[in-house]
Amino acid sequence: MKRNRVIALMTSVVVAGVLAGCSGGGGGASTGSANANGNSSNCTNKIVKKDAPVVTLWAWYPNTEKVVDNFNNAHSDVQVCWTNAGAGGAEYDKFQTAVSAGTGAPDVVMLEADRIPTFQVQGALVDLKKLGYEDVKSNFSDGAWKDVSVGDGVYGAPIDGGPMGMIYRKDIFDKYGITTPPKTWDEYAADAQKVKDAGGPLFGDFPANQPAYVTALLYNNGANPFTYNTANKGTIGIKLNDDKSKQVLDYWAGLVSKGLVGKQDQFTPEYISGVIGGKYATYLSAAWAPGYLQGAGVGKGADANVWATAPLPQWDPSNPISVNWGGSAFSVTKQAKDPKLAAKVAFGVYADDASLKDGWQNQIIFPLNVHVLKDPNFINAEVKFFNGQQANKEVYVPAANAYKGMTYTPIGQYYYSAFTKQIAAINDGSKTGSQAADALQADVVKYAKEQGFTVK
């Protein structure tokens, strides 16, 4: 069966590292002597109830220890033994090794949503549908659940997300007479041209090294790049060169060719220095961006109190589409000693009020729990980075509530790699957006077929 070839392929994948899907996450190495092999003999955190069964957890967010302590102090029937096995790609490499070896994985592992199908197709994750999902289903939107689902199965407990908006510099907008943030992509291009004609900075950036971000922009135009359902074993729908996708890529190719936006790789020292130095008027990003930017040194000194945020521009303002970039979940692994108990931890860690409040108040995460999204304290919070603007109320909560979810597939990492090449070709002028879309479609379809998938 083709499915066997697909599983063999995914087992051999060396999972590439990507930016953690919130505020640059990336906690450093764990303290103490915690093991990164799923062993609970040593833990980074303290076990409070010595006689309770222990569930091992890999996670990397900066306040994970506090979150785990909150959980352990509130539970006498189970305790969490936490290890920071690395952030993002570093953790995935270790988890892939454990999956391939059949041993060494934790009971619960933090995964970014787009990584879940990669491990699910290998049989490495447990479906949570009958392990407490119904009890917490109402805590998250349909879009949040779709992101952690594969077919009819649920393979992650949502933690946070990245509803997108448009961060911009008020000082640059004021200087060049932009009185209202652009609401449509046509307005965005017109404002970009206005600033350039007046000798101003680049209006934004089109980075080749962030294909997940560009994928979100495709969804923003109503594109649906992939369909994938495990009920249709070994079948993937791939639609990367439809009219909507080509429209988006041709649009950005036009901005690049006119010198209206940059083409600098993001999350690099060069990009951050440009942000700090006023090289870009806007930064299209997610709700976790303020925490990341502050951590990188943005918003201090000369560029303090100049930042604001607005909703992401739309192609059709009468039919707005909210999109997401980033976000993580807790998944139960097939190596879990007690899947039911592990699921209780997955659903319960980072779900209590104290942990969620610490996450959003310190701009570590943007919680997707609807109890937070409906909390007046969260909605009306005045965000320091945005000089007191109620960013959640005006931008990110409405975007999170309207988000319908994305479809991720087991070939997602190859797709990202292939898309990176095509965005680079757009940026160097060797391909138009439409040509890049056609090349991407051919490349990804060929790859999927080589791995035993049926492509529709």
Automatic annotation (TrEMBL):
Pfam families: SBP_bac_1. This is Extracellular solute-binding protein. It comes from the Bacteria. It comes from Microbacterium rhizosphaerae. The keyword Signal applies. Keywords: Cell membrane, Lipoprotein, Membrane, Palmitate, Signal. Residues 1-20 form the signal peptide. InterPro entries: Bact_solute-bd_prot1, SBP. The keyword Cell membrane applies.
